[in-house]
């Protein structure tokens, strides 16, 4: 299974998703003219701490201020997502998550993005950044136990948007002028007040 190519249109997806106890249809077309952070995670109810999903949610307003939306996807059904979203964080749930969870029960989305671990039947912990023109700009694929860093995602999007406005080397954008949430402990909720100045 191959990863999609950078600088090419992102693979289209369409499925059911859950947000605020509601099930609805979702597709890539819903995010035209916005940047999109598409997060894949292995499955619900695992021993792996869901802190990173909660951290993205706690900083969603900051992403939105950058014309960026966040969605997450796993191979669970929308019924499973509803159950996980109803559980408190202290019990390993993700109650209060502010962005959609995509149900990829058929594994079609994970396959189209090249992140399905066929032996285990679950996606790797991957991230794709799609720009406001639907073009794939960034790919990160981690093993199941390795989470993603919200600060780095802010830096990447800032660099991409800077490059879009003024085509120069994006490496000129450093972490010095990017939000840096402090590291979290498992089960701990982040907040905008915890951003390091």
From TrEMBL:
**Which is one Gene Ontology cellular component term of this protein?**
cytosol
> Which molecular-function annotations from GO does this UniProt entry contain?
thioredoxin peroxidase activity
Keyword Disulfide bond annotated: yes
Q: Does the keyword Signal apply?
A: no
What is a biological process (GO) this protein takes part in?
cell redox homeostasis
Q: What class of enzyme is it?
A: oxidoreductase
Give the E.C. number(s): 1.11.1.24
What does UniProt list as catalytic? 49
Q: Which UniProt keywords apply?
A: Antioxidant, Disulfide bond, Oxidoreductase, Peroxidase, Redox-active center
Under SUPFAM superfamilies, the record lists: Thioredoxin-like
Known catalysed reaction(s)? Answer: a hydroperoxide + [thioredoxin]-dithiol = an alcohol + [thioredoxin]-disulfide + H2O
The UniProt record lists the Thioredoxin domain at 4-162
Family of this protein = Belongs to the peroxiredoxin family. AhpC/Prx1 subfamily.
What role is this protein assigned?
Thiol-specific peroxidase that catalyzes the reduction of hydrogen peroxide and organic hydroperoxides to water and alcohols, respectively.
Q: Tell me the protein's name.
A: thioredoxin-dependent peroxiredoxin
Q: Which organism is it from?
A: Adineta ricciae (Rotifer)
């Amino acid at each position: 299974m191959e990863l999609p190519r950078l600088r090419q249109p992102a693979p289209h997806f369409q499925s059911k998703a859950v947000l605020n106890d509601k099930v609805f249809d979702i597709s890539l077309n819903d995010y035209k003219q916005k940047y999109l952070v598409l997060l894949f995670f292995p499955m619900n109810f695992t021993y792996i701490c869901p802190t990173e999903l909660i951290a993205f949610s706690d900083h969603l307003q900051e992403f939105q201020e950058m014309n960026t939306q966040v969605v997450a996807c796993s191979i669970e059904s929308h019924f499973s997502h509803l159950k996980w979203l109803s559980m408190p964080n202290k019990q390993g749930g993700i109650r209060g998550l502010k962005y959609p969870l995509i149900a990829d029960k058929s594994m079609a989305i994970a396959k189209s993005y090249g992140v399905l671990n066929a032996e285990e039947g679950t996606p790797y912990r991957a991230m794709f950044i799609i720009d406001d023109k639907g073009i794939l700009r960034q790919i990160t694929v981690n093993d199941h136990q390795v989470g993603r860093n919200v600060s780095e995602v802010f830096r990447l999007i800032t660099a991409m948007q800077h490059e879009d406005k003024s085509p120069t080397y994006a490496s000129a954008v450093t972490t010095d002028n990017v939000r840096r949430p402090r590291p979290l402990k498992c089960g701990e909720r982040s907040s905008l007040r915890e951003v390091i100045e």
